[in-house]
Each structure stands twice: as C-alpha cells, then as structure tokens.
Amino acid sequence: MRIAVIGAGLGGLAAGLRLQGAGHEVVILEQGTAPGGRASRLRDGGFTWDTGPSLITMPWVLEETFAAAGLDLHAEVRLRRLDPLYRIRWADETRHLDFTGDRERLRAEVAKFSAADAGRLDGFLDALAPIYAEGILGAGRRDMSSLAAFARVVPAMVRHGALAPLHRLVARHLHHPRVREAFSFHSLFIGGDPFRVPAIYAALVHLQMLDGGWYADGGVYAVVEAMARALDVRCGARVDRVELRHGRVAGVVLEGGERVAADAVVSNADALGTHELLGRPAPRRSLRPTMSCFLLYLGADRTFDALLHHTLLVGPGYREFIRTATRGRTLPSTLSTYVHAPARSEPGMARPGGDSLCVLLPVPNLRARIDWGTEADGLRDAVLDDLERVHGLTGLRAAISVEHRMTPADFRDRFGAVAGNAFAVEPTLHQSAYLRPGNRVPGVRGLYRVGGGTHPGAGIPGVLLGAEVTARLVATDFPAPRRAEALR
Fold first, then answer.
1. 5, 201, 268, 395 — which has fewest CB within 10 A?
2. Average pLDDT estimate for 109-130
3. Does 473 fall in a domain?
4. Domain check: are 296 and 410 in the same one?
C-alpha cells in the first residue's frame, strides 16, 4: 500500500519510519527546500542554530522510532546527557536554580530558596510518578478519538489531581514563589500557560528526572537528517489538496497540478488547517492555537559564562507576562526569555571562541494584530537591552557578528501555522485527548494526522508518541504486507 505523508517535520518523518518499517511504500512530500519543518537548521558565518526544538527528553521514544524502521539511533546520532539540564535565573534574584536529574542535588538547589520546600520535594516528585505512568505513557500512547477511550483515563487523572491547573498542583506541594515557578513553567515549552493547562503536564518534570535531558551532536537537526536518510523525501513539493473519491483518500494534488496517488495520507501540516486540505469550510468548533515566539539567532564573537547550554531568564511580573504572551493583544511589558547555547556542549556549533545563541521570547500569535513589520526592530533592541542590563550579558550587542530573526509572521508564511502559532493547538483541558484533533480524521477513510496539533501534543516526545498512535491506526485500517513489532 502506498502512503503519502504531507510534511517532513519530526511527526511526518517518525510516522514515515514506522509505516515503512511495517512494509508500506511511503513518500514524504515537503514544501520546504529541506526536511525538518519547524525542526530546521540555520547556518551562517561559522555559526549553527536549531530553529526549532532544542532539548531531547525521553530518548527511548526516539530509539523505538528508529528501531521500528530497522535502524539503530545510536549508530546514526551521538547523544550527550546534559547535567544540569538547564539553569533558571530571575531578574530580581542573586540566586539561580540549576535543574538536575539527581534528586539530592536538586534538593540542594531548592534549599537555596526554601529549606521547607526542599523537605517537600520528595512528596511532590512522588506525586508525579502515577500521572506520568497513567497519563503520559498510558493515555499518550493510545488512540483517544472515542469518548469511551477518554472516559477510561479520566477517573485516574481526577484521582491524581491531574485535571486541576498545573500551577495549582505545584502550589499544593511547594510554597516559595520561585520554587513554584521553577517546577511549573515546563508547559510553556509546548505553548501552554501553567496557570490554565491541566496538571498532567507536571509530569514533564518527572520524565526529565527519570530519563534526563539530552543533546544530539549537530543539534536536533542531526536527528531529522538521520530520519530523512532512510525515507523517500521529496522537497519543494507543496500539497495543494487531498484528493477524495467516494469519501476515501485517493491521493494528493501538488501545487502546479501534479497528482500523487496514495491509498492513505498522513498530514503533518497544521492540524487547525486540515479542512483547507479537503476544500471544506472551517469546523464549527473553533480551537485556539498556541502563542507564538519571537526568536533571535545571534552569532557572537565571544562566550558568555552566565549561560549554560539551556538557560531560562525570568523577568518581573511572571504571571502577567505569561497571560500577555498566551492571551494578550499587545507585546509584553516585561520580558522572560529562553536562551539556547549549544556551543557549551559542542564547540563546533560556533566560531572558535564564540557563541551560537538562540533567544526565544514568547509573544502573542497573529490574532493579536501586532504589526511585526514595524514592531520587530524595537522588540529586538528591548530583548538585547534586557539580556545585557538585567541578566548580565554585558557586551552582547557589540559581540554580535551574525544575526537572524523569526517572528509570528514567519511561522505563518514558512510553516503554514494558523495565526502564526509556534506549538499548534493550545494544550488546555478542553483541547486535550478526545477534545483535541484526532489522529484519524473522522468522515474521511484513509486520512490521518500527526504532529504537535493532534494527540497527545507538542514537544519531541509528544510528537513521536503521536506518530506511534497514528501509525498503529493506519496498520489497523490498512494491514501491511508485514507487521512491524513497534506497531503491535
């Protein structure tokens, strides 16, 4: 059976590997000039940046994805464990917190802020274990397209407090405001406001403790390249529409008119735009896309010792900043940024003696109607001022020799992201599991979704687990010549 995958992002590539390993003929159609989608790479002047995800967690999910296609991840990519995973620095604090997977060392980090919270840490971490086991691993690896499947996991999530707001669960265990922030911000990595998303995402802390955080030599894009090498990826192939015959998939039509026949189609395009591929009006139920991001890719001629491989720089007014970024209509009045400095682990990602810095600032998506053509320059200057004056990166502006940026308009124009979102569908309680766009598109035989906008959600582990769910559904609907172990 021939399967066409729309988009060579991590989700499309992962689904392609699993389906090819199961014996299907797979072709991946990528509109860009190279595979990767949001997980792309930028190189300029001796500097290299990942333009998308930068932290690998749950590496065993990657191992399983490669193994499903008969590949060995570690023969393709070198992974390095990061310890600490990241550093959190606050604008109004002389103390910082280094997040490590070693419980005793993490307790010492928490004790910098609160001895009482250090004593409560075990109870908090232990409370996350069943949420991870039954939520992330249980529900996250199963098809949630039926109400019955969803109903089966709800009682356990209620029992563990996983449906309450994330910050509320953290606050029940940990009391110091800085400690609460340090253990609840993780949902921002997938576009979720910790004050509004369900506490199931607190399990992101547990999985980091359990499996650590990892870096791939060459960046996450090295993983993309390894996946794409094993697949038939056609770049510069923009899909205009999915072709249907009698309510079932017959193939896709490319921009320009070329038809690619297929028995099934897996869409790694933005899940909020699936109706456009079918030439149908938008669904009645309007789902909310996530916030977007303003990113600076800076090549500096010196290093900055205040930064680890991953550093979070938190400004004042943390809660208001998050509210503005996720639901506001204006640019935030204070700044909190994430800085990725991969040359800490791999010096070759920058010029000798220099730094490749990716600076990420969460901002409202394009529904805020901010004019990025006029606002981007001023915001760039504000970010650099904040990094230099508030967070101690003195001399950064003068050290920049190469610079690129990305705005919400780029997310829309380059990736087809609805409203320029950065992380697909906002992971609120009412947009999760059964209430999220399903891995199987209802009413169209042979059409499936993969990627951050479908179940279970965004982030590298979520996208890879979703590819497993989607591939299993395809295998159920269209048995392949041989069945791969990973799909059983």
1. 395
2. 98
3. yes
4. yes
Of residues 39, 326, 333, 327, the one with CA closest to residue 185:
326
Are both 61 and 208 inside the same structural domain? no
Q: In the predicted model, what is the mean pLDDT of residues 74-101?
A: 96
Write down the pTM of the prediction. 0.95
**Over 80: is that where the pLDDT of 351 sits?**
yes
Angle between helices 59-68 and 460-477 (to 10 degrees): 30
Token code pair at residue 252: 């896709």
Q: Residue 488: its pLDDT value, please?
A: 45
In terms of DSSP bridges, do strands 2-6 and 25-30 run parallel, antiparallel, or are they unpaired?
parallel
Q: Is 404 in the same domain as 319?
A: yes
Residue type, 393: L
CB 85 within 8 A of CB 212: yes
Q: Is 123 exposed, middle or buried (0-12, 13-18, 19+ CB in 10 A)?
A: exposed
Provide the percentage of residues in the chain whose pLDDT is more than 90. Answer: 96
Count the domains in the chain: 3
Same domain for 407 and 448, yes or no, is no
117: CB partners within 8 A, 6+ apart = 110, 111, 174, 175, 176, 179
d(CA 382, CA 359): 12
Same domain, 333 and 321: yes
Task: Give which of 432, 444, 477, 466 is closest to 200, Cα–Cα.
Answer: 432
Question: How many Å separate Cα 166 from the centre of its chain?
Answer: 18
* CA atoms of 487 and 472, how far apart (whole Å): 5
d(CA 436, CA 433): 5
Whether 374 and 392 share a structural domain? yes
Full domain range(s) for residue 10? 2-42+55-80+217-287+427-487
Residues with Cβ within 8 Å of residue 390, at least 6 apart in sequence: 91, 313, 315
Domain boundary among 383, 415, 447: 415
**How far, CA to CA in Å, does 378 sit from each of 51, 381, 431?**
22, 5, 34
Contact 447/441 with Cβ under 8 angstroms? yes
Q: Which residue has the tokens 């730094």?
A: 355
Do 210 and 221 have their domain in common?
A: no
Question: What number of other Cβ atoms are within 10 A of residue 378's Cβ?
Answer: 10
**Strands of 447-449's sheet, edge to edge?**
232-235, 25-30, 2-6, 264-267, 447-449
Q: Do residues 303 and 343 make contact, with C-beta atoms less than 8 angstroms apart?
A: yes
Sequence-distant (6+) residues with CB within 8 A of 126 are none
Q: How many other C-beta atoms are found inside a 10 Å radius of the C-beta of residue 246? A: 6
Question: Which structure tokens are listed for 53?
Answer: 């995800």
What is the length of the chain? Answer: 488
Structure tokens at 46: 């001796």
Q: Are residues 252 and 355 in the same domain?
A: no
